[in-house]
Design brief:
alpha/beta, L-arginine/glycine Amidinotransferase, Chain A, three-stranded mixed β-sheet, 15 strands
């Protein structure tokens, strides 16, 4: 169960965020409304949410998930693989200290963005991507091991982040799409396969028994509900334009 979340308001500079999409520039005002609804949804699901102010120096800073990993035993400050995002970690230690007594950190030559890390109980699947390298994954695995948790590396070929194509819905169930379908790393889990044309919805978010799904993916919603989950649909269209998904917008613990 999650009790807390940390979010950061979108900056007006969001339109300059890194992207691989051809969906156009995000509308700051609509993004702000969508972020407000997202935050209200987390509160509605029982979380106490700390809202950080926007950081205009970093267009992608609204995607706060990438700069820290919050586990049951410790928090880990990451070292983003995108060099333009490195400064986003400034000040996050002080924020995390409100909740954690133990804070670890990924250091050079490691790179790691927590969008590449999926928690499933005491297991943490770590995507090896353009943003997270082997050194970063090895550092995180060693950190987790110190606290009785396990890191499992998952090499990626196409996805920006691991969680661009996978979500843990708890109850031993995983939502997957694309290159993560039929992977041996996820043997033993109940797998819900997302259709290729709805792959964006593979990044959905389980919060205390309810799954938050992005708007516009009805087949994925049907599959999740058929598996026994309650769902909430929210629109994150403006964040999709800069490669952001549902989970990217918060730290949860």
């Amino acid at each position: 169960m999650f009790r807390n979340a940390i979010v950061r308001k979108p900056a007006f500079s969001l339109k300059e965020g890194l992207t691989t999409s051809d969906l156009g520039k995000p509308d700051y005002y609509l993004a702000s409304e969508q972020h407000k609804l997202y935050t209200e949804t987390l509160i509605r699901l029982g979380l106490k949410v700390k809202v950080l102010p926007e950081n205009e120096l970093f267009p992608d800073s609204v995607f706060i998930e990438d700069i820290a990993l919050c586990t049951q035993s410790c928090a880990v400050i990451t070292r983003p693989g995108a060099t333009t995002r490195r400064g986003e970690t400034d000040g996050i230690r002080e924020v995390l200290e409100e909740f954690y007594t133990i804070i670890e950190e990924i250091i050079y030559p490691g790179t790691l963005e927590a969008g590449d890390v999926m928690m499933a109980g005491d297991k943490f699947f770590i995507g090896i991507s353009d943003r997270t390298n082997e050194a970063g994954a090895e550092q995180l695995t060693a950190i987790l091991a110190r606290y009785g948790m396990k890191g499992i590396k998952v090499p990626l070929k196409k996805l920006l982040h691991l969680k661009s194509g996978i979500s843990c819905l708890e109850n031993n169930t995983i939502l997957v799409c694309g290159e993560l379908t039929n992977r041996s790393e996820f043997a033993g889990y109940n797998i819900i396969v997302v259709d290729e044309d709805e792959c964006y919805a593979a990044n959905s978010l389980w919060i205390n028994g309810t799954v938050i799904i992005p708007h516009g993916f009805p087949e994925t919603r049907k599959k999740i509900e058929k598996a026994g989950y309650e769902t909430i649909i929210i629109d994150v269209s403006e964040f999709r334009k800069v490669d952001g998904g549902i989970s990217c917008l918060s730290l949860r613990f």
